[in-house]
Amino acid sequence: MNMLEIYNKDISYSYEEGKSLLDILQDSGEIIESPCGGKGYCGKCKVQIIKGKLEKPTEEELKYLSKKDLEKNIRLGCFVYPKGYTCVKFLNKEEKNYKALSDGYIPDIELNPIIYKEVITWEKPTLKNNFSYEETLEKSIGEELYHNDTEILKALANVDNEEKVTLLYYEDKLIGIESGDTKDELYGAAVDIGTTTVVVSLIDLNTGKEIGTETSINPQKEYGLDVLSRIDFVKRKDNGLYLLQKAIVECINFLLENLCNKNGIDIQNVYEIAVGANATMMHLLLGIGTNTIGKSPYATIFSKEKNLWAKSIGLKISSFGRLYCLPGVSSFIGADIVAGAVVANLKDTKDNVFFIDIGTNGEMLLSKGGKLVSCSCAAGPALEGANISCGMRAAEGAIEGIQFNEDGVELQVIGDAEPIGICGSGILEAIAELHKKEIIKKSGRLKRKEDLEKEKRHILAEHLMEEGKKRKVILYKNGDEMISITQEDIRQVQLAKGAISSGFYALLDFMDMGMEDLDSIVIAGQFGRHLKTGSLTGVGIIPENLKDKINYIGNSSKTGAMICLLSKDARKEMEDIAKDIEYFELSTKEGYEKLFTKCLTFN
């Protein structure tokens, strides 16, 4: 009998022979990290085989398994095809105290939310005036009820004994009714769905105050680290779209419920959720197929704003609750970037401003005195700690800062804990430092150990390890455990740097501008705010001569969602700007490949 037992959980699943262990686990609803989406090139879906007959590891699988892994019978889920009874143990370490940026610059806005409440005293039906409660209420307020489901009618059935009721309006249309006076209980949630992280803020719509914020790793990462791997997951798996939508909806519900519980607020008094996200994340949230985004001409199913009932996708707020999805531009420039354009005031400025969301997708906007043009570059996940040999999320134990001095290496670790890996900001700072100390050449090549010794830089030479032709820099060592940066890690960062830098120069050229014409560079996003200016300029993502023009705006996607909750005018501005942003496809630029190659060097 084909049976898979999860040792850690004392759970068993029957399975169909011929499927990989990773597929069996995912089909059963188990969460296992698979950043590459099961394609066999990330080496992250490790499990320990407790019992079962398996084929020997292939040469390809052995690339990702250490001698210690093999001794413990640890295998990669995507390479293993079990038969009969198999028992496995999960190895995933819990990432504690995940560090994500949840705040950012908030522009001044006039408080004018699209959703509001009014309290009235109404005349109920009598024997003499024996109209329905619906008709009686309509006569009391002088307008017809707006509803396309039965929720408001259900609410009417529960207020038949109430003289005073609270009316809930959305876009000046009555959408709900509540017993008594609940005017002071009016909340919304601003959500940023990033490819890597999810941020939810609870907002008081009466005062405009941000009550609290919760953050989480995007649970979809277990099915694919970047948008392309998730699009591929949806394509390959019959229930892939369902799994990804379920994961993100449950995540939002969980974070919002935590926020409400911490602040003594009934989640049924949350009436709207506004969401900023890239195009793929927005499609997955709504359960819309992503197949068209992943193939030429890479068109989205939708890009305009969406105004829906929150319950239609399983969001557990008020039964009258609404879901507002901010507008995007294209498959590569989503609502998160449109939100950034509004928050940074890129449309109304007379300055020349370059806006960059440094992350997996590398979206950027250039405002030339208010004329907006955008592009997106496939920076990849290396800058966020993925596809790096010792990379990890920005959680407790992650190295986030590094300095090389005469005594060796000085580490800054999140939570002041024992180092267990290195996150994106740490990787970038390490490479900037290694380049500054001339341990990494302009080409990205690590120097040889003997060259450092000839230069009498013996302490730094001690941190350089050579295994045949392979080289790596040891940042931390404790017994057999070590954290290092390999030559391949440096190449991954070079590719990300090349993508972002080439986009930067290509947009400037497209608008007939030079670096000297820029008044400001705005760095946005969850990841970007944690990057030091010295790291950005040290590896050449931003030219050194522009370092004094760099400004950090924080999580502008969440901020954009927040101001959409609080202001009708901001919502209208968001929708208008989305129509004004021109998209420039980098691959159509003559000589782009040559530009990209040039931008790979560290300078």
Automatic annotation (TrEMBL):
Domain of life: Bacteria
Gene3D superfamilies named in the record: 3.10.20.30, Domain of unknown function (DUF4445)
One of the Pfam families matching this protein, by short name: RACo_C_ter
Gene Ontology molecular function, alphabetical: iron-sulfur cluster binding
UniProt-listed InterPro entries: 2Fe-2S_ferredoxin-like_sf, 2Fe-2S_ferredoxin-type, ATPase_NBD, Beta-grasp_dom_sf, Corrinoid_activation_enz, Raco-like_middle, Raco-like_middle_sf, RACo_C
Domain 2Fe-2S ferredoxin-type as annotated: residue spans: 2-94
Protein name, UniProt field: ASKHA domain-containing protein
Organism whose genome encodes this protein: Anaerosalibacter bizertensis
